[in-house]
Design brief:
It contains no helices and nine strands. It has strands at residues 8-11, 14-17, 24-26, 29-31, 35-39, 43-52, 72-84, 87-96, 105-112. The strands form three sheets. A five-stranded antiparallel sheet has the order 5-6-7-8-9, with no helix packed on it. Strands 1-2 form a two-stranded antiparallel sheet. A two-stranded antiparallel sheet has the order 3-4. A hairpin with a 2-residue loop joins strand 3 and strand 4 (29-31).
Amino acid sequence: MSWRPGFYIRNGRLTASNLGGFATRRNTDDIFQGLGLKHGDRVRYNATLRIDNGRKSADVRGLEGLDDIPRTLRARLSAMWQVEPAWKVASGLNLDLLQRGVGNVLDLGATNDRRWSEPTT
């Protein structure tokens, strides 16, 4: 465990942060990081850029001997569809823009929000 100072700056639809763990909410509307390409009541498309710092295998116990993963620039294109108030379906594509061999990732997911009480989801 370690501590790192972080920042999260938002101006309209654009955000900048140095850590990926920041999550914010505005009323019942999720705030996504990056540039909102299209935002409607039920569908949202986003594009983000981030620096992937990679990994040195010698620094991680159990990964000794594996190839290091180099630093690269990543783009993420994502879409979210609000099927009904409690259900969301999302997809995202992470691309290695510098083509440093760290791979591209496609993810798909579905979320169902349940209220425990009025202020808690």
